[in-house]
Amino acid sequence: MAGYPRAIFSQVCHPNSFLWTALIRGYVVNGPISEALVLYDCMRENGALPTSFTFCALFKAATLMGDVGLGCQLHGQMFKYGGFSSELFLNAGNTLIDLYVKCGVLECAHKVFDEMPVRDVVSGTSLIVAYAKGGAMEAAMQLFDELDVKDAVVWTAMITSYSQNARPKDALDMFDRMQCCGIEADEFTLAGVISACAQLGTTNYLTRIRDIAERSGYGPDGNVVIGSALVDMYAKCGRVDGAYEIFKVMKERNVYTYSSMILGFAVHGRAAEAIQLFYEMDKTDIRPNKITLIGVLTACSHAGMVNEGRQLFRSMEEKYGVIPTGDHYTCMVDLLGRSGHLEEALALAKSMPLDPHGGVWGALLGACRIHNNPDIAQVAASHLFELEPNNIGNYVLLANILSSAGRWDSVTRVRTLMKIKGLKKIPARSWVEGQKGSIQEFFAGDLTHPRSRDIMQVLEDLLTRLKLLGYQPNLNSVSYDISDDDKRQILMTHSEKLALAYELLTTESAHTIRIMKNLRICEDCHIFMCGASKITGREIVVRDNMRFHHFRDGSCSCGNF
Questions:
Q1: How far apart are CA 456 and CA 381, in angstroms?
Q2: How far apart, in Å, are the Cα atoms of 502 and each of 246, 435, 449, 507?
Q3: Residue 322 forms beta bridges with which residues?
Q4: A Gene Ontology MF term for this entry (predicted)?
Q5: Would you say 66 and 43 are in contact if contact means Cβ atoms under 8 Å apart?
Q6: Residue 529: which H helix or E strand, with range?
Q7: Tens digit of pLDDT for each residue in 58-83?
Q8: Could you check whether 1-149 and 326-425 share the same CATH topology?
Q9: What homologous superfamily does CATH list for 1-149?
Q10: Fold for domain 326-425?
Q11: SS3 of 129, please?
Q12: Residue 340 pLDDT > 80, yes or no?
């Protein structure tokens, strides 16, 4: 800027507004920005009137500087030169709104938008995204409804915003509205919709979304972004085999593709496949990231591969350039704890170079529940009570561990502490998706379902068959000082059992009889298991507050049985 542009400009006796604007814009783009402001002062002193392009450049300068005060001054001058109805405001309004949005002054941005003679969809989209980032989805929706013209970009902004604000059902409803209006979805729209489906965990959108993607030219075989998102969606909706089918047809894969598939295998109890896929990835040019390694460590935990997990954890920074985070330490504590190495898990938590978060101590507390170690459990719980003082789950889990050890005085103290803090246990919930996509929700001990009588009959039949095979319920898992019969009743009406019984009830009767002949019980999560994939041709998936449980090939995916 100090060379030819300035030299040529200095030779013009009476530069007009366009020459001044060209030089001002040059300094805004290339710097220093302060010189652009000096030139603007000189421009006014020489009697040249600023144009809308001049103000666009100056608003951009204020945005880059993050100086909302300067922006307000320029806003006032633009109004002085032309007012709200002028061409200046019409052409530079979008840049002014962008300034206020990026400086976090949404009220001013909205006022400018309201005063614009023509409400531009570009400005509307910017405001919607800004409101969404602040979680103000009602304001974003109101603004969306006020727009006269809605293109694919603003529809996508609303869908993505709902998805990013953990409102997946609203995102899918918005997508349905978009389809009804005849607006075609692009890859960005589909990415938002896929994210919403993954959060919701339902399968009734899976085939439809994939069909739309393929019809629009964004099929997984040719689009790595959509392909990776579909792998993630299928895995999070409990359809791991479907996710792997998409993975295999993808011609191009990146670290997100592999990470989604490895994590999908891992969290659904298919540890061997997760680890094998990681070994295959290691032979490519794609380097794993922190999410990939979380998936592999989770798989090691499910498979009980302690030595492999230790080796990976120790080498991840040197070999892959990934510094262990709190989530990686959580995986290692979980791995060591599940395998019975509670002392080593406690030592690892205490020796972390960063402050352990609740996930680390929560994993240790959960391991103490598996191995019935009340002493280490109290150490882990003491940290959790400081980090998460209002998380009732930690108090309940500690009480369960103490009751299993017969320490009823300690149980009483924990429950008294819960009452002092005013904490109330939220009933456990489980979901199961019906064959037509309907979601059935069950609460622990809740017998208000329209088919509760039939559900309980199925459970009684299952228990009768299991008792003939020598099964006895683990009554120590009930942390109440009540009779054994009452404990059996509580275990029988576990929310996951109710959900699975409903699924069996709605399966064809001939298949149900065959399923009942292949039953086992998971001692960790107290769920019946069966070879459902071999019998009915599909998995039965039950989802509770913490995880999915897949009943296939005679085992439960929780990994503890």
A1: 36
A2: 30, 12, 10, 9
A3: none
A4: RNA binding
A5: no
A6: strand 528-529
A7: 888 888 888 888 888 888 888 887 76
A8: yes
A9: Tetratricopeptide repeat domain (1.25.40.10)
A10: 1.25.40
A11: helix
A12: yes
Length of the chain in residues, anyone? 561
- What is the rounded average pLDDT of the residues 291-318? 92
> What tokens appear for 528 in the block?
């019946």
Residue pair 166/201 in contact by the 8 Å Cβ criterion = no
**Which sequence spans correspond to the domains of the chain?**
1-149, 326-425, 429-556
Between helix 290-303 and helix 255-267 the angle, nearest 10°, is: 20
Q: If DSSP codes are grouped into helix, strand and coil, which group holds residue 269?
A: coil
Half-sphere exposure of 384 toward its Cβ, with a 13 Å CA cutoff? 24
Sign of CA dihedral 223, 225, 228, 229: negative
CA 299 centroid distance within chain? 20
Which of left, alpha, beta for 217 (phi over 0: left; psi -120 to 50: alpha)?
left
pLDDT digits (tens, 9 = 90+) for 166-183: 888 899 889 989 989 988
Considering only CA atoms, which of 190, 263, 184 is closest in space to residue 229? 190
Side-chain-side CA neighbours of 306 within 13 Å: the count stands at 11
Report CA 52 to chain centroid distance, whole Å. 42
What's the per-residue H, E or C state across 219-264? CCCCCHHHHHHHHHHHHHCCCHHHHHHHHHHCCCCCHHHHHHHHHH
CA–CA separation, 477 vs 463, rounded Å?
Answer: 17
- Measure the CA–CA gap between 388 and 519, rounded to whole angstroms: 39
Arithmetic mean of pLDDT, 375-393: 92
For residue 48, the 8-state DSSP code is P
CA distance 310 to 97: 53
DSSP class of residue 286 equals P
Cα–Cα distance measured from residue 258 to residue 147, given in angstroms and rounded to the nearest whole number? 40
Angle between helices 152-164 and 137-146 (to 10 degrees): 170
Contact 274, 296 (CB under 8 A): yes
Residues with Cβ < 8 Å from 5, sequence gap 6 or more? Answer: 23, 26
Q: Which residues pair with 550 in a beta bridge?
A: 541
258 CA to centre of own chain: 17
CB-count burial class (<10 Å; 0-12, 13-18, 19+) for 524: middle
Measured CA to CA, the distance from residue 161 to residue 109 in angstroms comes to 19
Place of tokens 């290692």: 332
- In which band, very low, low, confident or very high, does the pLDDT at 342 lie, cut at 50, 70 and 90? very high
Do residues 496 and 526 touch, judged by C-beta distance below 8 A?
Answer: yes
Element (H, E) at 360: helix 358-371
Q: Which two tokens stand for residue 392?
A: 């009732």
